[in-house]
Amino acid sequence: MMKRLKKLPRTASNIINKAIKKKKKKRLPQPPPSPPLLPQPPPAPAKMPSSHSRPFVFPQTNSPILPDPSAFFSPGLLSSPLPTNSFFQNFVLKNGDQPEYIHPYLIKSSSSSISVSYPSRFATASFIYQTFVPDLTISSPSSPPSQSNHIISSFNDLSVTLDLPPSLRFFLVRGSPFVTASTLAGAAAPAPLSITSIHAFLSVRPNPSFTKHTFELNSGQTFLCYSSSPLRFEISGTTQLIATGGYAGIVRIAFLPDPSYESILDQFSSCYPVSGDASFSRPGCIEYRWEKKGWGDLLLLAHPLHLRLLDPDSSAVLENFKYRSIDGDLVGVVGDSWLLKTDLVSTTWCSTNGINEDGVQEIISALSKDINDLNTSPIQTTSSYFYGKAIARAARLALIAHEANFSDGIPTVLQFLRSSITPWLDGSFNGNGFLYESKWGGLVSKQGSTDSGADFGFGVYNDHHYHLGYFLYAIAVLAKFDPAWGRKFRPQAYSIMADFMNLSRRSGSSYARLRCFDPWKLHSWAGGLTEFADGRNQESTSEAVNAYYSAALLGLSYGDAHLAAIGSTLASLEIAAAETWWHVREGEGMYEDGFSRENRVVGVLWANKRDSGLWFAPPEWRECRMGIQVLPLLPITEDLFRDVGFLKELVKWTLPALTREGVAEGWKGFVYGMEGVYDKEDALVKIRSLNGFDDGNSLSNLLWWVHSRGEEEGGVRGGWFGHYCH
After folding, report:
1. Active site annotation includes 592
2. Which of 474, 437, 439, 459 is nearest to 383 (CA)?
3. Positions of the chain with pLDDT lower than 50, given as ranges
């Protein structure tokens, strides 16, 4: 994942700062509304033929560059699509020995052992990361070992089960303050069990029944070890404990952050989760359900966004039971299930407030030129990313023309979209296209299927929601205006959507479940099948929002209420996550003072790191950092930046960077557009002075954005009905 935006040639820009007296503006009457997502139901979908009951499968390929999943997944899992952006992805790549952050612990598997780290945190003004130190390593030494590496025997939205044959199984459940291990069934005798530490054991204190041990380490840390049956250790040197006579049963390890927490950990030590599912049963809701064993109530930890969305009637919160995390304090929650509720974004084709009447002619003038340029400047790139941006940019012109009542311009745009999109769907595009590969189960590009660096790693499942989100946007718009074309290519459209938004758990599914979206973190990851020491990562939250928003629009085009609702739900959660972790507010307490003072947006957010740099730009290029969290500029951008106070701080933080030599005009456009939310007149002067635009943006789009800002800045989440009547 490197540079995704073309750098435009630098030309001198003449920025005129002129005070213009503001006046109240009339608004252009809105065009006839498209079927809204809520509160009225959309029209019933057309009956789909039985041949379309499963997603269309693009031409198949055997990609030579993809890793072999059989090395780490149990044979029973290989017949179904496998995750390519999961929270445990490092466990199944290369040697499988890079750590993963399974809150609140960093977990590393190596040499038939599991190492557990309660990480310390290192922060500067430029980055924050958590340091892995193998505080405790759990293994079952066997001679000779039956297998040199671990095996994933099952996985789900909130958990992964990792086996160390022949003796140990780990139930790694996200947010559990305990790391839980079980000896594998069928052993003829108790299994060897060893616990070692990079630190020295100062004391090992058992309770009278030998079902609880307290480990005091010379690092100053205290760990508690619970067992379902008596467990007796002998100490070998100062760094190793060996179970006398082996062991059979359950072992649970927990770090003790505060001595007062010990009674709480004791109380909940007998109930352990073995798996966890997330379900999207209602619009705007996600429900967690865990399968548990043992007895008593289930204790888990919630991150700050969980706590913000948690229905208080679904679970009990232990406000004074906390673990440290790079994502903010993790707080104890008791309950077998959680219900999270978010306010749905308003999935609309056009701006919320409509266009100011006195801006219509300027927009139409820009549209005339931008639409005419479609005929004289055909798309030159074969890159799936840049091609997607180009067709989505054109689709924006059709919707802006619709909103501005410039109907004369729409046919030209629709013809351009037909001729540009259709070859990708029918396989006639020269130089690239979509293919299906069955090893992991998903789409790859022709170029990416043989070159891991092509199409920004699309062939190794990097950035799928970014690329495909742009295609879905263009398809949704064309299907809205040309239903006949939409019906013809509906199978391909749904297949593209399902590649990153499939909810099915069925073995016969063509695609992995929620390829990019992480139901526990509540945002997407983009890293694909590439090993990273800090786990998965995502750079552009706005492009992730675009993917789910575009899927919701596709649902509106096809009268598919379920798709519209799921797309809107995922977009709403992605926005909430961006507000929580990517948008940096000084003094908020999420990040250290130095980092929050110097930054207003995170560059790349990793599972175990926060970075101010980008894949394609250093930290000081603030206009790139802001722009990559804004593009593409859409009606849903109103929701993403509805906090105008924060937006003002973000623009203020970014503007000085525009004086740097070499700043591309395209990046300036996004900064000026955001400035237009609260200072329209000054922003318009700057926008009119631009000599170029990002390849997914246009003068028409920037003028539409600024001229459709209302007196009530920011989006109205959930639509006007919820705003006025709830």
Report:
1. no
2. 459
3. 1-25, 29, 31-52
- CA separation (Å) from 715 to 26, 352, 550, 650? 19, 7, 17, 17
pLDDT digits (tens, 9 = 90+) for 592-620: 999 999 999 999 999 999 999 999 999 99
How many other CB atoms are there within 10 angstroms of residue 141's CB atom? 13
Indicate the Cα dihedral angle 195, 196, 197, 201, nearest 10°.
80
Contact in structure between 211 and 224 (CB atoms under 8 Å): no
Give me the catalytic one of 403, 518, 534, 543. Answer: 543
State residue 527's pLDDT score. 93
- Residue (of 236, 232, 238, 237) closest to 219 by Cα position: 238
First to last CA, the chain: 43
Element (H, E) at 720: helix 719-725
8 Å CB contact between 339 and 279: no
The token pair that represents 560 in the structure block: 């598919």
Residue with token string 């038939």: 112
Q: What backbone torsions phi and psi does residue 75 show, to the nearest 5 degrees?
A: -55, -35
What was the pLDDT predicted at 250? 97
CB 525 within 8 A of CB 463: no
Q: How far apart are CA 453 and CA 460, in angstroms?
A: 9
Max CA-CA distance within the chain? 86
Asked if 142 contacts 189 with a C-beta cutoff of 8 angstroms, the reply is no
Q: Is the peptide bond before 166 cis (omega within 30 degrees of 0)?
A: yes
- Check: CB of residue 331 under 8 Å from CB of residue 321: yes
Q: Is 426 helix (H, G, I), strand (E, B) or coil?
A: helix
Joined tokens for residue 113: 């052992």
Taking the model in full, what pTM does it have?
0.92
- Residue 166 half-sphere exposure toward CB, CA atoms < 13 A: 12
pLDDT at 707: 98
Contact present, 60 and 437 (Cβ < 8 Å) = yes
Pairing mode of beta strands 222-227, 609-611: unpaired
Please say whether the dihedral angle defined by the alpha carbons of residues 276, 277, 282 and 286, taken in this order, is positive or negative: positive
Catalytic residue among 100, 539, 611, 675: 539
539 counts as catalytic:
yes
Written as one string, the DSSP assignment of 515-574 is SSEETTTTEE----S---TT--EES-HHHHHHHHHHHHHHHHHTT-HHHHHHHHHHHHHH
**CB under 8 Å to 361, separation ≥6 — which residues?**
none
Compute the distance between CA of residue 604 and CA of residue 595 in angstroms, rounded to an integer: 14
Q: With contact defined as beta carbons under 8 Å apart, do 449 and 65 qualify?
A: yes
Determine which one of 455, 463, 574, 638 is catalytic.
463
DSSP-derived secondary structure letter, 257? S
Q: What confidence score (pLDDT) does residue 186 get?
A: 63
Question: If you write DSSP's letter for every residue of 579-625 in order, what string do you get?
Answer: IIIIB--TTSSSS-HHHHHH-SB-SEEETTEEESS-SSS-TT-HHHH
Hey, which bits of 191-345 come out as E strands? Answer: 194-196, 201-206, 212-217, 222-227, 233-236, 240-243, 250-255, 271-279, 285-294, 299-302, 316-323, 330-334, 337-341
The C-alpha atoms of residue 58 and residue 508 are separated, in whole angstroms, by: 16
Give the orientation angle of helix 410-426 with respect to helix 384-403, to 10 degrees. Answer: 150
Helix, strand, coil share of the chain (percent; to 5): 35, 20, 45
- pLDDT, tens digit (0-9, with 9 covering 90-100), for 322-379: 999 999 999 999 999 999 999 999 899 999 999 999 999 999 999 999 999 999 989 9
Whether 287 sits among the annotated catalytic residues: the reply is no
The helix (run of H) or strand (run of E) holding residue 636 is none
Helix (H, G, I), strand (E, B) or coil at 166: coil
